[in-house]
Structure formats: C-alpha cells, structure tokens
Amino acid sequence: MKKFVLMISLLFFTLSFYTITVAAEEKGDSQKQESFDLAPDAKSGILIERDTGKIMFEKQAHEKLPPASMTKVMTLLLIMEEIEKGTLKKDELIRVSENAASMGGSQIFLEAGEEMTVNDLLKGIAIASGNDASVALAERIAGSEEAFVKMMNDKVKELGLENTQFQNVTGLPAENHYSTAYDMAMMAKELLSHESVTEYTSIYEDYLRKGTENEFWLVNTNKLVRFYPGVDGLKTGFTNEAKYCLTATAKKGDMRVIAVVMGAGTPKERNASVSKMLDYAFNTYETKKLFEKGESITKLNLFKAENRNTPVVASQSISTLFKKGESVDELSTSVKLDAITLPLKKGDKVGTLQVKNGETVISETPLVVEENVEKASLFTLFKRSIQKLSKYD
C-alpha cells in the first residue's frame, strides 16, 4: 500500500513539474514573441529587403488601412515611369490648373496659371508632400486626376496587389481609399527600381522659386532622412483617420531595406518603430550583390530583328540575403528567355534570371531589352538569307 501511495505521489509530482515547465516555456515564448514586435505602437508594419523582397518582420501586414500621403508612393512611381520612358521631361514647364491649385492639406501653394518645371514639382511631392504638385503632374500625364487614379489602380493589379484601392492621387481622406503595409512595401520596392527617385526623396531642405518674392522653403516631412544614417526616402503620411504612417528606405553598403508602419499614435512613435526595424535589418542580415540594374546578362540573337544582337539586361539590381554567420551553399544563376514577338520596346520583358542557393530558388528577376527592337526590313532579311545559304556552299 505504501509503495502504491509513493508511486501515485511521484506521478503527481512528475505531472505537476511537467505542467509548470511547459507553462514557463510557453510564457517565455510569448514574451520572446512580444519582445520581437518592432512596431509596438503601430497598427501594422513590415520590413523587407528591396532586391529579394524577403520579409524580415511583419505585423498585421495585410490589414486594410488608410495610407494617407503614402499614397504618393504610387503617384511617384507612375511619374518616374513616364520620365524613364521619355514621355515626360524634367525641364518641361507644367501649367497649374484651378483644380490642382485648390488642393488642401500639404501643399507648396501653387497658383492657378503658374508654370513650374517637372523637376520642381517632383521636389514639391517628394520633400513637402505637396497635394497640389501631385495633382498638377497627374493632370499632365493622364489628362485628369480621375484618369490618373485609374492608372494607379491598374498598376496595383499589374503588381499583383490585392488589398489596395485608390480614389485620389494625394491620400486625402476618401471612402474606399485603402492599402496595407505589405502592399505599400511592394509599391516602394517597384518605385526604388527607378533609382533616381532618391535624388529627390533624400533632400532634407530646398527652395522653390528661389530668389523671387514667392520663394518657398521645402523641409522634408521624413525627419529620418536627417537623423538616421542611410535613410534616403520615401514617404510619410498623416490624417486623423490614418494616424502617423511612414514608408521608409535605407541603404547600408549593398543592402537596401524598406520599412513600413501604419497607424502610429505620434510622429515620435512612428520614427522609433521604423528605426527599430532598420536597426534589426542591418544588425541581423547582410546581402551579396550579384548584378546591378541595367547590367548586361545575355543577348538576343533574332534573325528577324533589324538589330540581330540585342543586349538583355537586369530590370533591377539583384542580390541575395542571408543572416550574418549563416552558411551559404554555392550560388548559381540561370536564364530563361520568353517567346519573343517583334517589335519590342525598350524595357519590355524578354526573360527571367533565376538565382539558386543549392537546390533552392531564392529569387527570380525579369530581364528586359535595353533598346527598341524593330522587325527586320525585307532587304535585311534577303541579305541574311543569302549569307546563310552561302555558308552551305
């Protein structure tokens, strides 16, 4: 009987010890998870590496929220695309409409009928978050703000984003105008493929109409540009509904990261959360640069093209990301070309560069042509056919 009681006591002791241990471990895991919240004062947030798109931290990253002036990340993306295509010149003078001049909120106080260069309007958007400058450029590109908003939403679909819808180009409060931390990060990733955008978003202060009676002092709404080394963009946002938001990017060495916070209570909390994310990224990870944007990868040898040998280049910079101290297997790359239909325009996708770490695919990047490719003329085709036949003589 004593042995039985002893066995029962030992059993209860063992079970109690196990329960206490498991509870302690679960509590410890919970505390560890809580301590890893890099954006404790924000409703949502995300941290990604730009080249690979790898997520290093996320919190409610797919929750639909008002993005406020972070909307202008997409506005800037479409503007930079037009500049890169050559359909919009930085020295072009834009005449400001009554509609653009009437925008409230953040503005650079454009007057109806005033003319300003694309370059200065870009500064007004990137530095001071000018709603009037945003609408002025949108109207120049698409004819109206409404038409430009359609372009924005079409681009959202093209990028495969499912939780964003825009109603205006500025981020001013509007029904069914929303995005997510994840979607904003992907838009920022695309915007940063136009690397010259940081020439604007990295400016802390500047002047418009310098030397005139209407001189206007621009001060960047993103204070981290001045106070966090390596930060060179991108876009802040605030409305009473959205609270304090920020899509930021920073570069250290070859590594560029993007951090997004939405719904922070104060500017200080917003900046602190983004700073924590950036610290974590640069302290924990490192990258290996493989190719620069525009670097030649291969060539197209097209019999029916006027220029038979056409360079194929990386559409964006290509890197690998890994934790510091982590072993990396042998990296390998391979090119897969698409079926080609002529003619091609500069920037058209013609293939994919795949990067593997061992047997694991770690990235796939579009390859594009760096120049227009026209169909060969009948005379060119005739000459090539003769040359080809002569080889068999």
UniProtKB/TrEMBL annotation:
Which transformation does this protein catalyse, written as a reaction? Preferential cleavage: (Ac)2-L-Lys-D-Ala-|-D-Ala. Also transpeptidation of peptidyl-alanyl moieties that are N-acyl substituents of D-alanine
Output the PANTHER family linked to this UniProt entry.
Answer: D-ALANYL-D-ALANINE CARBOXYPEPTIDASE (PTHR21581), TRAFFICKING PROTEIN PARTICLE COMPLEX SUBUNIT 12 (PTHR21581:SF6)
Domain of life of the organism encoding this protein: Bacteria
Q: Which InterPro entries match?
A: Beta-lactam/transpept-like (IPR012338), Peniciliin-bd_prot_C_sf (IPR015956), Peptidase_S11 (IPR018044), Peptidase_S11_C (IPR012907), Peptidase_S11_C_sf (IPR037167), Peptidase_S11_N (IPR001967)
Q: Function, please?
A: Removes C-terminal D-alanyl residues from sugar-peptide cell wall precursors.
- Name the pathway: Cell wall biogenesis; peptidoglycan biosynthesis
SMART domains documented for this protein: PBP5_C
Primary enzyme class: hydrolase
Q: Family per UniProt? A: Belongs to the peptidase S11 family.
What are the record keywords, sorted? Carboxypeptidase, Cell shape, Cell wall biogenesis/degradation, Hydrolase, Peptidoglycan synthesis, Protease, Signal
Single annotated GO MF: serine-type D-Ala-D-Ala carboxypeptidase activity
The reply on keyword Cell wall biogenesis/degradation is: yes
Where substrate binds, per the record, is at: K235
Q: What is its EC number?
A: 3.4.16.4
Q: What residue stretch is flagged as signal peptide? A: 1-23
GO term, biological process aspect, one: regulation of cell shape
Q: What is this protein called?
A: serine-type D-Ala-D-Ala carboxypeptidase
- List, for all copies, the residue spans of the domain called Peptidase S11 D-Ala-D-Ala carboxypeptidase A C-terminal: 285-375
